[in-house]
Amino acid sequence: MADCLTLDLRVTAGSDGRHEVTAEEPGSGRAGPERLGLHELDAPGFRAALEIVRRGPPAADGEPFRVVGDGLFRALFGGDVLSLFAGLHDQRIRPNPHAALRLRLDIDERLPDLAALPWELLRWRDAPLSTQVQTLLSRRVAGLGYGTVRPLSVADRPRVLLVIPRGSGLATEGERAILTAALARNGIPYDVLEDKVTLGLLADVLAGGAYHILHFIGHGAEAMTGDGGLSGYLRFNAPGAAGESADEEWVEHDRIQAVLSTHTDLRLVVLNACSSAAIGGRPPGAASRGFSGLVPAILRAGVPAALAM
After folding, report:
1. Using the 8-state DSSP alphabet, how is residue 15 labeled?
2. Does residue 80 sit in helix, strand or coil?
3. Dihedral of CA 125/131/136/141: which sign?
4. Helices H, strands E: what count in the chain?
5. How far, CA to CA in Å, does 203 sit from each of 150, 163, 177, 251?
6. Tens of pLDDT along 137-184?
């Protein structure tokens, strides 16, 4: 069995504007607080590269990704926090090919601009942490108030539902073929919900079967609200639309949360949709605190994990 260690990284808002980073691994103690390197994130070169990354650069140009990933790492890891991370990696993970270090990043809900940065691009020793076999990078959102998190494990093979609304104009056929072939090859049961897919139809299908993984293939979007918050959207097909030209409905995250919250079998939601990982802060005076967007809504619905872009 693989030896998996967990290093929890927490970014908190300081009263003097100097945000702090702490790191904790149960078997190795705690490091920090260290000051978050805001100067790295404000550097002109970093900001220029970040803008290129957010616009979607050509795949052949990796330099902006390197600049952003290196800057994010230098901002997050410094002093004792870096020492703890490097020590765990070099002394307990690297010598053991079956070991892994799980990094869980949790950013204070009062820092939505920091949370919106692409921390998944973190680079160390000239390699992205998220693509290394022995490092597992994920986000935690501790302030959502969603109660006890359900375990990811299931009693038997997970059952998968692929959701592909029609008329997106995307190359969905290739992804569908790759996914269904992989699932069939591994004996994992799946169903495909495609053609005209409304939110209501998705709710009916989820109610009729115990699905553990929902994989959405389509369009996503984000938009700022009038009160300064952020809303996330997925494109479904519109109920009762006569033709494909009008056959779309952009469904806001709170409606998606309402549908998913009644299905306790779900363990993972995968969103292959643009801007689906975008998050924002709750506007001042909102009824509840914390982040807003598609992923926070899915987690608030009780789904243990989400994978978005």
Report:
1. T
2. helix
3. positive
4. 9, 17
5. 21, 12, 24, 13
6. 888 776 555 556 667 778 888 999 999 999 888 889 999 999 999 999
CA dist 27 and 102 (Å) reads: 13
Cis upstream peptide for 112 (omega within 30°) = no
pLDDT in tens, 36-95: 999 999 999 999 999 988 876 555 568 899 999 999 999 999 999 999 999 999 988 888
The dihedral through the CA atoms of 297, 9, 77, 2 has a sign that is negative
Q: pTM score, two decimals?
A: 0.78
267 SS3 class? coil
Report residue 57 CA to chain centroid gap: 20
Q: Check: CB of residue 101 under 8 Å from CB of residue 151.
A: no
Q: Is 262 helix (H, G, I), strand (E, B) or coil?
A: coil
Cα 95 versus chain centre, distance:
30
How far is Cα of residue 7 from the mean position of the Cα atoms in its chain? 18
In the chain, what's the furthest Cα-to-Cα distance?
63
Report the relative pairing of strands 213-217 and 230-236 from DSSP bridges. unpaired
Q: What share of the chain is helix, strand, coil (3-state, %, to 5)?
A: 30, 30, 40
Q: Where are the alpha helices (DSSP H) in the chain?
A: 38-42, 44-55, 63-76, 79-88, 112-115, 172-185, 199-207, 253-260, 294-300
Do residues 34 and 21 touch, judged by C-beta distance below 8 A?
yes
| DSSP string computed for 145-170 | ---SPPPS--SSSPPEEEEEETT--S
28-66 core/surface letters (b: 16 or more CB in 10 A; e: else): eeebbbbebbeebbebeebeebbebbeeeeeeeeeebbe
